[in-house]
Amino acid sequence: MRSGASRQTAVKPAAVASPLNMRPGRPRPGHHGALGLWLALATAPAAAQVSPLTGQTLFYQQAAAPQTRDYLAAYAGLIYTDNIERTANGSSDTLLMVGLSGTISREGSRLDYHLTSNLAILKYFSSAFPTRPTGYLDGLAALKIVPGFFSWIVRETFSQVQIDVFAPVTPDNLVSLNFITTGPRFTLRPTLRTSVTLDALYSYVNTSSPSPQFTNLDNHRYGGDLKIDRAFSEAASLYLKGHYEKTEFKDQVDNHNYSLADGLLGYKLVDGRTVFDLSGGYSHLEVYDVLIATEGVGGGRESLQTQKFDEPVWAVDISRLITPSQRLALTASQTFTDFASAFRLGFNQPVPTVAPPQFATSSVSKQRLWGVDWRFQATRTSLDIALTESKQRYVIATATASNLDWKAVNTLLTRRLSPVLIWDIGASFERRDEVGPQPGGAAPQSSKLWSALTSLSWQVGERLAMRFIYAHSGWSGVYSDNQLGVTVSWALIAAQANAAQPYPGMTPIAPASTR
To answer: pTM of the prediction?
Structure first.
């Protein structure tokens, strides 16, 4: 694996060790958003890292249960894998996991909050890897100090990213990431149809990893967001958004500080069958203290300079109920992003799209993303198919060897066998390709990953549920892995299922869109 700027990789929410995706206990209506589907079918998982299919995935658990009500469960499970190291001849191991999964939210006169979690502690019986937290947690709270005008917001996100997306996912190839944001929010309503929201934000990103190839990516961020929204009707509105953020790394030897500013003008339409959101604007990026070779008297010289980049940014999201049982969602975007912010990007989409891998590096990339998601939902059966493609281009010349093209196809079928039994079967295929010249004239890397899963969920009681899982994953020419697991969950906060209508009707907004 390459080190330093030539190979600093990361994947979106992969999890150290969240081997088999547990579903919290209750009958599971079969609804799967695209983000949930991908995280279940394509995200790199746990330490041995169980399979890309069965890695950390909050959304797989909840995408299959599109409850609009609160749900939170404690769960535990045993997972057997025949390839804990994810190598050609890896040894077997059994893993114990204990965690918390679900989504709860509240809108009150003084406090709003939203919590989405699939966080767990993973124990390896063979001690192949140390016991560590794994999975994902995202929480947002707003304290309304002066309701309608002044509030204080706090957001905490925990996830993991890969150091090298061309190496198997094990704890030695993962970075734990804590991303906390806080600051005041001011809301003004100059007219009945116009609202202005201003956030002044401070963020701190903390990273850690046992890997000797880990580069410290801890940083402070200062900035703010401005949004002006003008409603034309109950369904349609025009908005103007501005964003500024300056990032300062603790380690400024291996990392480059930068500032990013962008402005967007957009139009949004939301009704009972359609969500349409179109926006476009411009982004200005400044990267500080970049070592640049220059011509000089007596030969070439190197100097630290500020590099500036100006690019158009845009996004279009369309989600439409084409029939009462079918939804089609399309998304396309171009944006600047980095290893930490990329994890939070998809939440604002009506149907969150499959998330491409990101490199754990201080470099900022221009990311173009295209996605299509089709969902069919009948009384007892649901089927979701998602196709996604992305192109990531790093702006600093020293990081362009990490440019990546990525494609993924995912499908998931859910069938309710009885009021207490749900059967899932899913499959995914993913291809990653390095783009451009590589250090030392090396050939660009390419990888093909596939996975498949089948599971049976049994609602034992009102709050108690069990899940039995088999998963297989493989990486062409690198490894293959089989897993067997059983998990038990207890609903701390349980949404009551409607026996007369176990499958909630579809809307153009997927339950996984929590923001």
So the answer is: 0.82
